[in-house]
Amino acid sequence: MPAMELTRSQEEALIARALAGDTQAFGPLVERYQKPLLSFIHTLLRKPDRVEDIGQETFIKAFRALATHDPARAAFSTWLFAIARNGCIDELRRPSLVRSGLQGLEDAQAASYPPRDKEAVFIRLERALDALPREQRETFTLVCAQGLTLEEAAIVLGCPTGTVKSRLNRAREALRRTVLGQEAEAGGKNAKP
Amino acid sequence: MQNPDPENLLEAFAASRKLDWNPSQGFARRVMSGLAPAAEAETAPTAARGSRPLPGSFGVTVPGPLAAGWERLCRLLSPPIGLRNLGVSLACLALAAGILVWRAERIDPGQRSDSGPTRIKGEEFRIAFLAGNGVALREVGEGEAFQAGDKLQPLYSSARAGYISLFSIDNAGTVSSYSGEGPGAASPPGQGRSLPFAVELDDSRGAELFIAVRTSTPADHRVLEGELRRAWEENGRRVSGLSPRPARIGLPEARIATFRIAKGGGTL
Predict the structure, then answer these.
(1) Average pLDDT over residues A143-172
(2) Residues of chain B with C-beta less than 8 angstroms from the C-beta of A107
(3) Å from B76 to nearest chain A CA?
(4) In chain A, positions 95-134, which contact chain B (CB-CB < 8 Å)?
(5) Inter-axis angle of helices A27-45 and A51-64, to 10 degrees?
(6) What is the mean pLDDT of chain B?
(7) Which chain A residues are within 8 Å of B27, Cβ to Cβ?
(8) CA dihedral over A89, A94, A99, A101, signed as positive or negative
(9) Is A33 exposed, middle or buried (0-12, 13-18, 19+ CB in 10 A)?
(10) Could you read off the pLDDT of B71-115 as tens digits, one per residue?
(11) What is the pLDDT of residue A97?
């Protein structure tokens, strides 16, 4: 079933009702944002067994902190994603008993099914992305993969838009070098003596 | 082979990193069920040390990853439609049984559970745990081993209403309190009732003893923590063989129930 669309004023009305004690008013917000929020968490976290736990915690934290949401500063969805992002960071800081970076890579490949001839480049890119500072990695994921605007990413990341832009440029440049390095390597192998 | 455009490759790579997630059936309902006890959960702060309590709701609602399994368990236990036809005839039997129970309660009021037909003997007080991974839910066996991050839902069975405080103590003598600082609300009698929080296990290793204390008036948790620590010291600073007695922790009218687990793959 497609998620119900809500205008910003409808969202604000629901939030006002929830703040006034009508818990059920939060329900349409959960229905509306559960899929994008869980996809967002899955993209950041890459731990399928934890996605819905973090999602549930995010909604509960948001509900309890509704009074702190400022609609003039950020849309409800942006604010929600910021809470989820913090939950993901907490989760990633916890020692993992099962998952590994390699597992995350396999998930990414399974989910995206890149063509064979791109597979090697994608693996290198994945490693290069993992090697980036966390801020750059997050920025690339939020803007390029998740499709947030620079302004939205700035709110989620809690930094100025200019910082998002520079982090994104640095991330893209590092990844571009990886692609070119892969191409040079491939070209070298194919070069005739 | 034609070299791909780096920008196109980057775009394709970025797109491949966006992972869609379809919420499981009932996800929104679980979220909504987790909102109700916000006030209660906030009165139960995270333990400073040891395993930590997770917010949950009181009664039949089980929080977080346990919820789906809990619902499944409830469905399994609910009667199939065909059996409802037996209801009329069973109602006659129930009426007769009700008269007997009513007569019994006239003789011994205040001693019995208010949930379900099964009565709990005398002053009995027990605790148990459910463990779940979001899909399945199962009852935990005494002495079972768990890992850091595993979540357990505590249950209690009690013949009387009372104030239930849950603690745990590990081999290092670390006492964790899960019931918050304040007195909270009295827990009703019943069998297999869930306490209003779940417990997430920390990364300490070895045996851990959960201790539930039921008192008729709100107990001071700090005093109880001290008494439990003293009991551990008197037991040779070991969890093994530790069995706190109400009189020895200064609450002769209290009832104590214990449950042992092992953490970090250790054994008891």
Answers:
(1) 90
(2) 19
(3) 24
(4) 95, 97, 107-109, 111-112, 114, 117-118, 121-122, 125-126, 129
(5) 130
(6) 69
(7) 34, 38, 52, 55-56
(8) positive
(9) buried
(10) 444 444 444 444 444 554 566 466 555 544 444 343 333 333 333
(11) 42
In this structure, is residue B13 part of a structural domain?
Answer: no
Chain A CA closest to residue B31: A56
Cβ atoms of B169 and B229 within 8 Å: the answer is yes
CATH topology of domain A101-190: Arc Repressor Mutant, subunit A (1.10.10)
SS3 B248: helix
Confidence grade of residue B267 (pLDDT, cut at 50, 70, 90): very low
How close, in Å, is residue A135 to chain B by CA atoms?
A: 16
Q: How many domains does chain B have?
A: 1
CATH number of A8-93: 1.10.1740.10
Residue B179: predicted pLDDT: 76
Start-end ranges of CATH 1.10.10.10 in chain A?
101-190
Q: What pLDDT, on the 0 to 100 scale, is given for residue B47?
A: 33
Asked if B64 lies within 8 A of A190 by C-beta distance, the reply is no
pLDDT digits (tens, 9 = 90+) for A102-140: 344 344 444 443 445 667 788 888 888 888 898 898 899
CA distance B36 to chain A (A): 7
Say if B6 falls within a structural domain.
no
- ipTM surpassing 0.95: no
The reply to whether residue B9 touches residue A52, judged by beta carbons under 8 angstroms, is no
Secondary structure (DSSP) of B157-220: EESS-BEEEEEEEETT--EEE-S-SS--PPBPPEEEEEPSEEEE--S--EEEEEEEEEESS---
- Measure in Å the smallest separation between the Cα of A48 and chain B Cα atoms: 9
Pairwise CA distance, residues B68 & B166, whole Å: 25
| pLDDT given at position B33 | 81
Contact A186 B3 (CB under 8 A): yes
Among B7, B15, B32, the residue with its CB nearest the CB of A30 is: B32
